[in-house]
Automatic annotation (TrEMBL):
Residues 3-119 form the Response regulatory domain. It comes from Serratia inhibens. GO terms for biological process: phosphorelay signal transduction system; regulation of DNA-templated transcription. This is DNA-binding response regulator. Keywords: DNA-binding, Phosphoprotein, Two-component regulatory system. Residues 135-200 form the HTH luxR-type domain. The lineage of its organism: Bacteria, Pseudomonadati, Pseudomonadota, Gammaproteobacteria, Enterobacterales. The modification 4-aspartylphosphate is found at residue 54. GO terms for molecular function: DNA binding. Pfam families: GerE, Response_reg. InterPro entries: CheY-like_superfamily, EvgA-like, NreC/VraR/RcsB-like_REC, Sig_transdc_resp-reg_C-effctor, Sig_transdc_resp-reg_receiver, Tscrpt_reg_LuxR_C, WH-like_DNA-bd_sf. SUPFAM superfamilies: C-terminal effector domain of the bipartite response regulators, CheY-like.
Length: 201
């Protein structure tokens, strides 16, 4: 029986996935944890056929967790299941070593199908996500100024500090920041840092 580890801070996702798996032709063992600490603890003590990871965890950088799992457990299959913007994050997840990506806007049947595909040893990504690119989708969307501001934000600088450094108004920095958040789908500073790391080799 394949054993699955779900890393997601929303209990409703656990319940919904459990119900969807019960309708499947296979039997699964599903365990759920809420954060990166619990996930790493589980992986250290048990073997899982597949990790289903939400890279939009509120208290941690999901992409960095993905990379950490990949470093410590190179053979561990990992499927990303997240509400983050598919166009950008599917490619970033693939580049970071994930085996598949399913957006939370998809039907649960699609998630179960992706689980079965990855367990069979095949990748499961949206069309175009695995394309070899010199820059991720986010990089092609951001202007040079936005990339510069993203870099400064990722270093922990405030809007005011960035405004003074670049000799622009605080309002202009705020506008750029809003555009960066909208284009990358990032929801907080941790995710912005992850985006910047993906864009800078």
């Amino acid at each position: 029986m394949p054993s699955l580890l779900l890393v997601d801070d929303h209990p409703v996702v656990h319940v919904a996935l459990e119900a969807a798996l019960m309708k499947s032709s296979r039997s699964y063992s599903l365990q759920a944890v809420e954060d990166d600490v619990q996930a790493l603890a589980q992986l250290a003590t048990a073997d899982f056929s597949l990790v289903i990871l939400d890279i939009g965890l509120p208290q941690s950088d999901g992409l960095q967790l993905l990379k950490k799992i990949r470093r410590h457990y190179p053979q561990q299959p990992i499927l990303i299941y997240t509400a983050q913007e598919e166009e950008i994050y599917a490619h970033m997840a693939w580049a970071a070593g994930a085996n598949g990506f399913v957006h939370k806007g998809s039907r649960l049947e699609q998630l179960v199908q992706a689980i079965e595909t990855v367990l069979a040893g095949e990748p499961s990504f949206p069309a175009g996500a695995m394309a070899e690119e010199t820059q991720s989708a986010a990089g092609t969307l951001l202007t040079p100024k936005e990339l510069q501001i993203l870099g400064l934000l990722s270093k922990g600088l405030s809007n005011l500090q960035i405004a003074e450094m670049l000799s622009i108004s605080n309002k202009t920095v705020s506008t750029h920041k809003k555009n960066i958040l909208r284009k990358t789908g990032a929801g907080n500073l941790l995710e912005l840092v992850a985006v910047f790391r993906e864009l800078t080799p």
